[in-house]
Structure formats: structure tokens, C-alpha cells
Amino acid sequence: MKAGLVARLTAVFVTVFALSACSNGEQASEGESASQTVKGEVWYREKIALPDDALVHVYLEDVSLADAPAEVIAQKLISASKAPPYSFEFVVPKEQFKPNHRYALRARIEHKGKLLFTNDEFIDALSSDDGHRNVLVKKVVRAQPKLQNTRWKLVHVAGEKLQLGEQERPAYFSLNEENASVSGFNGCNGFNSTYTLKGTDIQFGMFAATMKMCAQGSDLEAQMMSILGNAKRYQIKGPQLSLLNEQGQTIGRFVAVSP
Q1: DSSP of the chain
Q2: Distance between CA 189 and CA 195 in Å, rounded?
Q3: Membrane-spanning residues where (predicted)?
Q4: Each residue's pLDDT tens digit in the chain (259 positions)?
Q5: What whole-number distance in Å separates Cα of residue 85 and Cα of residue 54?
Q6: Strand partners, 88
Q7: Which backbone phi and psi does 201 adopt, to 5 degrees?
Q8: Are strands 55-62 and 250-257 parallel, antiparallel or unpaired?
Q9: For residues 150 and 174, is the Cβ–Cβ distance under 8 A?
Q10: Is the pTM of this model over 0.90?
């Protein structure tokens, strides 16, 4: 009698356990199918090492609307302290993907906010059966700034320590191509002048400046006006401008900055 009861209870327990396991399996299966996995690697061809604090930004975006910004569906931040490739994986609810929409992967490698690499080709995020995509990023090549119509900030004075301007403002100048005029700030006062160019030769005209007295900035003013007054030639390498004297010696260096 007892043996029969035990057998029946055991059978009930096994049946309940099996049904529970089956139910859990179905739920897990449903959970897995409710999401879409997009994974891959970001890499570049150049044999160069990145700064230890460089970062890789990877974006999964809806790019369906040509006249509107892409909608970011998911994003990932990866340290670029090691050599590529840089692996990424997105697990996104399928409900976020809309029928007839286009989804792309975009990657950027940055260092302290400066863009170093990015991909310039459309990469379909969902076209691969296994969800694995390779994202090739290319080095960003910046156009060399023009001498004219660019703001040039003084960053180096030959043989001297660069002085501070009023309220620590930098000295700068700009050449207006349209009317061959010069405008700028010398560390204490604003100034204007004219200039002439012949090849890489440059000559500044007479300077007119405001006459404000500054508690700080007069030393930088003297440095800036001496450089411009003695400049005879110029050289541009990358974002940097060098002004040279009559002997061909660099007397000041400037970098291109946003106004």
C-alpha cells in the first residue's frame, strides 16, 4: 500500500518537474528569439600605435531617413590601448527594428575629442546571417589650412618664453584675402594693418592699434608686434604656421584655431 502511494507521488513529481522544465525552456527560447545580436570587430590597416587613452566609439544606427540625422539604437565605448581588432557586441530587442528600415554600423576612434579614424562606407548591420560584421576605419586626413582667412594663434616665440595676454587671452592674427587687410589681438590691444604676398614672402604694413593700458599683456604685445614687424617669409606645415626673418630664422610659430 505504502509502496504504491510512493510510486504514485513520485510519478506526479516527475511529471510536474518535466512540465516546469519544458515551460522554462520555452520561456528561454522566447527570450532568446526576442532579441537580435549584432557583433563584429573594428580595425584599421595602418601599422601605428594609438595613445593609451584613445577610445573606440561604435554605433548601431537607423539611417532610413536621408533628410534627418541617424537615430542611435545602441552604442559601445571600447579602450583602444591595445592593437586592433576591437570587438563589440550589441544585443537589441527585435521590437526596436522596424520593417523596411535600414540599419548601419558606424565607428570612430578618438583621442581627447580629436577624431583619428572613422569608416566612410555604409555597413549594413543586419545583412550577415551570423550577425558578425567587420568595420574598417580609415585615418582622417585633415586639409592644410590656408594662410589667408584663417585665425593664427601665437604659440611659440623664438628664444623667449611666451608671455600671457590680458586675462590670459592668446595673441592672434588673421589675413583677409578679399581686401589684403590684417586684424588681430596682440595680447593687450586689437590691431589692424595691411599685407603683401609674393610666393612665400610676406610683408606687413604699418600697424594701427588701440591704446589701452593692460596690467597683464604688454609683454606679449611686444613679442607679437616684433614677430609681425620682422616677418619676411612664411612656412605652413600641417596646422602650423612659422614666420621667418630676413635671415631665414623662425621667429614665431602659430597654429590654426577656430574664431
Answers
A1: -HHHHHHHHHHHHHHHHHHHHHHHHHHHHHHHHTEEEEEEEEE--S--PPPTT-EEEEEEEE---TTSPPEEEEEEEEE-SSPSPEEEEEEEEGGGSPTT--EEEEEEEEETTEEEEE--S--BSS-STT-EEEEE-EEPPPPPPPSTT-EEEEEEETTBPPPP-GGGPPPEEEEETTTTEEEEE-SSSEEEEEEEEETTEEEE---EE-----SS-HHHHHHHHHHHHH--EEEEETTEEEEE-TTS-EEEEEEEE--
A2: 19
A3: none
A4: 444 544 454 444 444 444 444 444 444 444 456 988 999 999 999 999 999 999 999 999 999 887 778 899 999 999 999 999 999 999 999 999 999 999 999 999 999 988 999 998 889 998 866 668 999 999 887 778 899 999 999 999 999 999 999 988 999 999 999 999 999 999 999 999 999 999 999 999 999 999 999 989 999 999 999 999 999 999 999 889 999 999 999 999 999 987 7
A5: 14
A6: 40
A7: -85, 140
A8: unpaired
A9: yes
A10: no
Q: How far apart are CA 210 and CA 204, in angstroms?
A: 18
Sheet order of strands, 86-93 included: 86-93, 35-43, 132-136
**Contact in structure between 103 and 124 (CB atoms under 8 Å):** yes
* Residue that is written with C-alpha cell 537580435 in the block: 36
- The DSSP bridge pattern shows strands 190-198 and 201-204 to be antiparallel
Type of residue numbered 139: K
Cβ atoms of 96 and 38 within 8 Å: the answer is no
What amino acid occupies position 110? E
Instruction: Please state, in angstroms and rounded to a whole number, the distance separating the CA atoms of residues 37 and 128.
Output: 11
**How far is the CA of 219 from the CAs of 164, 165, 242, in angstroms?**
8, 8, 20
Q: Cell numbers at residue 115, please?
A: 577624431
Which one-letter amino acid corresponds to residue 210?
A: T
